[in-house]
Structure formats: C-alpha cells, structure tokens
Design a protein that fits this description.
The complex is a heterodimer of chains A (242) and B (228). Chain A is an alpha+beta fold. Helix content of chain A is 41%, strand content 15%. In chain A, the strands form two sheets. A four-stranded antiparallel beta sheet of chain A has the order 2-3-5-4, sandwiched between helices. Chain A has a two-stranded antiparallel sheet with strand order 1-6. In chain A, helix 3 crosses helix 7. The radius of gyration of chain A is 20 Å and the shape is globular. Chain B has a single domain, classed as NADH Oxidase (3-Layer(aba) Sandwich). In chain B, helix 2 packs across helix 6. Chain B is built from eight helices and seven strands. In chain B, the strands form two sheets. A four-stranded antiparallel beta sheet of chain B has the order 2-3-5-4. Chain B has a two-stranded antiparallel ribbon with strand order 1-6. Classes of the chains: A alpha+beta (242), B alpha+beta (228). The interface between A and B is large, with 96 and 97 residues. Strand 7 of chain A pairs parallel with strand 2 of chain B.
Chain lengths: 242, 228
C-alpha cells in the first residue's frame, strides 16, 4: 500500500504536541480489549516507512507477540524481574546501594506480561543494498553486516530503535492505542535462549507493549499523593546552549 | 495533523542554506516542546543536548573533523581485520551537514544527581538508580541511546511541521578524551543532529550520479517486523 493511502487510515489530531502529550506509562491494560491487528500493522508499516537508518540498514528486528502468546510474555517478564533483582544485588555488592527491594516485583513491569501485543526488538545484522555494495567495493566499512560487530554498534542501533518506537508510538496514539516501554532486562541473548525465548540470535534492545489502558502509572501516583514528586529534570538541565 | 505526511517530508541533507536564518526563539520553542513530550525511565533523562548555534562555526568544524577521523580509523581497522580490502580515501560527503548548518545538536550521556522525590523514596526502599553513578554510564548507554532516539524523533516531527530540515550522524568517537577541545562534552557522545533549511538532499545527489531510488532501499517490512 502507498504511503498516501496509509496516511488516510490514521486519525487527524488537533496538534502533534497534544497527541504526544496523551502518552503515559501503563500500569495495566484492559483485559480482553484487543486493538485491531490492522491498526497495529498499519502503525508498524508507517514506523518502518518513516524511521531513518544509517546506510538504510535497519539493523534490528521487531518480534511481535500477539494476544495468544501468554507463555512467551510470562517468560519475558521473568527476564525483566530477574534482571531487576540481579542489578540491585550487584549494586549492594559494589557499595552503590545499602539494601535491595527484597525480590519484590515492580508493579510497573506488569505491562510486559499482560498486554494484547508485546514487541521484543533485537539487533539483526544486515546485508548492504545495491548502492552500499558498491561503496563497500570502494573501501567503505559496512559494519552492520557482521555478527561479531553487534556489540560494537549497539548504542547507534539503539538510537535508531528509539526513533522507531517513538514513531510507532505516535502512529498508535493516532488510533487512541496506548503503549509502554521497558529497558530493564538481560542483554545477554544466551539467557533469553536458555529461558526458551529463541525468536532471535542477537542482543535485545527494548521491549514495548501495546493495548488499551486500564490504569496509568501517574493515576496511581496521584492516588498515593506522589504525582508532584515525580517530575522530570528542568528544561535547562537537559538543553545546554553553548 | 497527520504524522505520516509530516514525517514523509524528512530527507538527509547534503547542504543547508545557512543564509536563511532560523530564529533562536523558534529552536528554543521546538526544543521545549520536545523536552516536555519525551518520556524517560524514572524521569531521569540521563542525557544532555548541547546546542551549537549559527555563530559556532569553528566548533562545528572540530566536530566534523572528529567524524572524519572516526570514519578513517574504522576503515583502517576493518582493513586490518580483513573485513574490507583497503580503506577508501575519500571523506564521506554526507557528513557535510555536521559542519555547515544553522544549529548542531550534540547529545551526550549525563550523570543524574537529582532524582525525583518519588525516586528518592524508592531508593530508600532498595531501588537502585544506575543513572546516578558515573561508572554506570557505559552500562546503561543502550537505554540512554533509546531515549535519545525518542527525543530526536519528537524534535524531527516538530521541525518538519515548521519546514525545518534535520539530519543525523552517529559516526563519531565515543571516548570523551577525543573531545578535549570541546570541553562541554564531559560524558560519552551518543548522536549528532543538524538543523536548517535544506538546499540539497542526499537523494538528489544519488540521482545525479545515476543511482535509482530502488538501488538504495531499506530492508522490506517483513524483514524488519516479524509476527511471531
């Protein structure tokens, strides 16, 4: 389908900023209310179409677990929870924390196991296209091709993955569909495969869930009278004019 | 507003028309909206966005030099490892946007010394906030890079709405010691992003050299998205 036809499938918003301001971290999704697959497919197509990539490589792969994949989502959630415990224990061992949360499950990870769709995005080596094959012949180093370079280029691939999930988020918000992210999980792919998650051979980059929200994290913080205590850094702490 | 139509406008810039000025207030407004709209794990935003305005010509050349050096080093190294026959001797013309632009943004990692009051409360209960420790910058660099990508995507969307072009680069040295002549870079650089009004685009350049759009395609969607 052409991109102009795809564009007509989205909902028109008053302003982009108002649209983006609608996104919040989801504590829980409505059970049994599944966003139509065609909306998710359309948003994925738009994100694929509009997300730029160095050398047009898109050296990552998006694995989509749909509504029936309860077991895999449970396994991914375990990877997240175990990583959380491991990170806290290591911090105590290094003297950067005095105690752990005693293996308590973080409720804000629950979106990983209970959702209509879970996206696991992993790195993926890529062959160069026709134009870059010629550049390689002339001496260009196309590092996205080599499996042994996956760890070396992980931060630049993650920048691209960040762009992809942000664009995907924007398109899903146009359908009033909620999303949440997690980046707390083991990066070692051997741990994933050992746990039975064999969809990829390469390092994971980010997790993203999709659904209709039952409750947002900020609503819970409001209930706890903690909302005002959870503000991002001020603008001038992040943006530095030189 | 339809985001697909807006984002379809973006193309990699080979040269900007730097004679057409973008007021600083416009850039400030776009950055402010982006800061407000972009989410971050535990509200840390563990990165800084250093903005070099139109007057920072020398600094931009220094950044460009670093990218060129990095490219040469990568190719020399790849030749040594037998991954390519020999390094090319030309400078990548698509880095040009780094030295000639209206604004250049340098994203670097940031150690966060002010957790939110809510995070302070969770730390007391045993939560470990890696973002607060200098020695964890490299440990969390992939998470920080994801967030930088999200920030850059929002900014791109807002820029496109104002017909301001942007381009990116991630080929630069990531060790801080290589940035000693730009002392504001105190932590690992993650990404460069230029802004301005585009005069020539990479696609035009390729066409002029006889390349067809289909020669420079990205992987097909079914190679990138896999419904399990």
């Amino acid at each position: 389908m052409g991109w102009k036809k795809q564009a007509r499938k989205g909902k028109t918003q008053s302003t982009t900023f108002e649209l983006l301001e609608k996104r919040h971290h989801v504590r829980s999704y409505i059970k049994g209310k599944i966003p139509p697959k065609e909306y998710v497919e359309s948003a994925l197509w738009k994100a694929w179409k509009t997300t730029p990539s160095k050398n047009n490589a898109m050296a990552y792969k998006v694995f989509v677990y749909g509504p029936t994949h309860h077991k895999e989502k449970e396994l991914v959630h375990q990877m997240v929870h175990k990583n959380h415990i491991s990170a806290e224990q290591s911090a105590v061992a290094r003297g950067q924390q005095t105690k752990t949360e005693d293996r308590k499950e973080n409720p804000f990870y629950e979106h990983i196991k209970k959702n209509p769709y879970l996206l696991c995005i992993h790195q993926e080596p890529r062959e160069p296209n026709k134009f870059y094959q010629e550049q390689v012949r002339q001496g260009m180093f196309y590092d996205q091709k080599f499996p042994d370079r996956v760890d070396n280029i992980t931060d630049s691939i993650c920048v691209e993955v960040g762009m992809f999930i942000q664009n995907l988020t924007t398109y899903l918000l146009e359908y009033d569909i909620d999303v949440s992210y997690t980046s707390c999980f083991f990066r070692d792919i051997r741990k994933w495969r050992k746990a039975g998650l064999v969809h990829s051979k390469y390092r994971p980059s980010v997790l993203m869930s999709i659904g209709y929200k039952q409750e947002y994290r900020y609503e819970i913080l409001k209930r706890w009278s903690r909302y005002e205590d959870d503000r991002k850094p001020e603008y001038d702490e992040i943006i530095k004019w030189q | 507003m339809d985001s697909l139509i807006t984002l379809m406008k973006r193309k990699h810039v080979t040269s900007y028309n730097i004679n057409v000025k973008i007021p600083k207030e416009t850039v400030e407004r776009l950055l402010h909206k982006t800061w407000q709209a972009t989410s971050s794990k535990n509200n840390f935003m563990p990165y800084s966005v250093h903005v070099l305005g139109p007057d920072k010509k020398e600094e931009k050349i220094l950044v460009w030099n670093k990218c060129v050096a990095k490219q040469q080093h990568s190719e020399d190294q790849a030749a040594k490892e037998g991954k390519i026959k020999e390094a090319q001797t030309i400078v990548n013309p698509y880095y040009n946007h780094i030295k000639e632009n209206s604004y250049l943004l340098i994203f670097t990692a940031r150690v966060c010394d002010k957790p939110t009051r809510y995070v302070q409360h969770t730390i007391k209960n045993g939560h470990y906030a890696q973002e607060m420790f200098e020695d964890q910058v490299n440990e969390i660099i992939t998470t920080t890079s994801i967030e930088v990508g999200m920030f850059a995507s929002h900014l791109t969307l807002f820029c496109m709405e104002h017909d301001i072009d942007v381009s990116y680069a991630v080929c630069m040295p990531t060790l801080v010691k290589h940035w000693h002549n730009l002392p504001f870079v105190k932590h690992r650089p993650i990404m460069l992003m230029s802004m301005g009004y585009g005069e020539k685009y990479r696609t035009q350049n390729l066409q002029a050299k006889g390349w067809k759009p289909e020669d420079d395609f990205k992987p097909q969607i079914n190679e990138v998205v896999n419904w399990v």
